[in-house]
Write a structure and sequence with these properties.
Strand order of the largest sheet: 6-7-8-10-11-12-13-14-15-16
Helix content: 10-25%
Largest sheet: 10 strands, antiparallel, barrel
Structural class: alpha+beta
Radius of gyration: 32 Å
Strand content: 35-45%
């Protein structure tokens, strides 16, 4: 009894910790059309760059509808930004404007409002908005800005709060600072950022395609946390349940009429939890070691009974399954919507044992107990369908080492046993933090009896003839689980 309690306590602590981390969620960001971006291509590139674990994006259609209510925009005021945030239920409004061009390079300036406060904007100089350098620099800078504290409204003398500058006053200060920098690009980063920018100009990074200076004007103070998209989650805990029905049938000798009845009970409800952990993915989810993991699965029937005959006592059944094993996950590309494949090897146990205590004799129930112990090579595939939905499919080959009481001499005796376990379904991910998974499942274990068990060879009183040659144990079911991911 101690082990189940300790296991339940561990699962509860893990779930509570993950839920506490995940519940807050990333800030919700809205990006109206970029000024000067006539065809919308730059806005698409910016939204693609900002699509990550630390930022939740409002869809462009919803943003466009809300922006249209404000009328014609040329720039964005704090009042308008607050109206947009209220309409879209957004934590942050980002307004971008193409300022000028320097040869092949272009300069893009962002103004930022977080929870109604206008933060210092920033400027990024780039050549190709689809390059990895542009995406990385923009994403990390935006995460830094969104996580920065709101403007200090106190003047520091303890006499109260400063008067907030108007938008025109802020713009005037930015212009003066830009002139003081002498670079003419309207950059409004602080003095330390300005020094980093000048240093960046002296040692401009160059892409493989020869495009340089893409990250001018972006001073990265801290690095964003590793991106744990759903296909690279460092840990995933599923809890839920479902239902299943079992069918055990026997192969009898020709013209043999005294075989055991087929076992076809009704469906039973079950509870389940699964834990997948990839320890090295906490630090580097994209690295080779990030794919090394382990998994645990436990499934138990909540109410399972069997009754021998119409007048027999109703027997409680211990019906459960668990697996534990190692796995390796391979994600095909770097994107959050990349397909992935997982190879693994598990040790498992699957039990179906009725409590025969209420029976006058154990043999009054003509149903063998099964307690499978097996090693299972496994293969799983995950195919994203769009941004949040994925098709999942998996299977195992069950190399049964021991089938339990059914193989004893007073039952059906020794046998060749082999099985498969398969599942397929959909995975709905919510902001890379939560998910719902619905699965259809099928398990099949076949027997070919090779020994001289009493129930296989002596049902007709003649031990020299084979009465029961084999058996087929099948389980069909489904499950729905809720998951917390990190």
């Amino acid at each position: 009894m101690t082990r189940p309690i300790a296991l339940a306590a561990f699962v509860w602590l893990v779930l509570a910790k993950l839920a506490a981390v995940a519940w807050a969620g990333p800030p919700k960001l809205a990006l109206p059309a970029i000024e000067g971006d006539d065809d919308g291509e730059l806005r698409d590139a910016v939204m693609e760059a900002l699509d990550g674990e630390d930022i939740a994006l409002v869809g462009p259609k919803a943003t466009n509808r809300a922006t249209e209510k404000l009328g014609e925009l040329s720039g964005l005021t704090t009042k308008q930004a607050k109206q947009l945030a209220t309409e879209l239920k957004a934590d942050a409004i980002i307004y971008g404007a193409l300022q000028s061009s320097e040869g092949k390079s272009r300069i893009l300036h962002f103004d930022i409002w977080v929870n109604g406060h206008k933060l210092k904007g920033f400027t990024i100089q780039f050549t190709n908005p689809h390059s990895k350098k542009f995406k990385k620099a923009l994403y990390e800078k935006m995460v830094e800005k969104l996580n920065s504290p709101p403007p200090d409204e106190d003047d520091g003398d303890g006499k109260g709060k400063k008067k907030k500058p108007t938008d025109d006053e802020e713009d005037g200060k930015k212009k003066q600072k830009a002139d003081a920098d002498g670079d003419g690009d309207g950059d409004d980063v602080d003095a330390e950022d300005g020094k980093k920018k000048k240093k960046a100009k002296k040692t401009a990074a160059t892409d493989e395609d020869g495009e340089d200076g893409e990250d001018d004007g972006v001073a990265i103070v801290k690095r964003a946390q590793p991106k744990h998209s759903a296909n690279r989650a460092a840990i995933r805990l599923d809890i839920g349940g479902g239902g299943s029905t079992r069918r055990l049938t026997f192969t009898t000798a020709p013209d043999f009429q005294d075989g055991p009845p087929d076992f076809k009970p009704g469906a039973v409800p079950n509870g389940r939890f699964e834990l997948d952990a990839y320890p090295f993915a906490f630090g580097n989810p994209d690295g080779f070691a990030g794919g090394i993991g382990l998994g645990v699965k436990y499934d138990r029937a909540l109410s399972s009974h069997v009754q021998p005959g119409a007048d027999g006592p109703r027997l409680t059944v211990k019906q459960q399954q668990y697996e534990v094993g190692l796995r390796y996950r391979w994600v095909f590309t770097e994107t959050a919507t990349s397909p992935s494949v997982t190879f693994g090897a598990n040790y498992g146990r699957r039990t179906y044992v009725p409590d025969r205590g209420p029976l006058a004799a154990p043999t009054d129930l003509d149903l063998p107990d099964t307690d499978y112990k097996y090693i299972a090579p496994s293969l799983g595939l995950r195919f994203p369908i769009g941004g949040s939905l994925a098709f999942v499919v998996g299977g195992e080959a069950l190399l049964v080492q021991d089938a339990g009481p059914i193989q004893e001499a007073d039952s059906y005796g020794r046998a060749k046993v082999f099985g498969i376990d398969s599942q397929a379904g959909l995975d709905l991910v919510i902001k890379n933090r939560f998910a719902f998974r619905a699965l259809a499942e099928y398990n099949r274990i076949g027997f070919a009896f090779t020994g001289k068990g009493d129930l296989a060879n002596n049902r007709d009183g003649d031990p020299d003839t084979i009465d029961i040659g084999g058996a087929l144990d099948q389980t069909i079911g489904g499950s729905l689980t809720f998951a917390v991911l990190y």
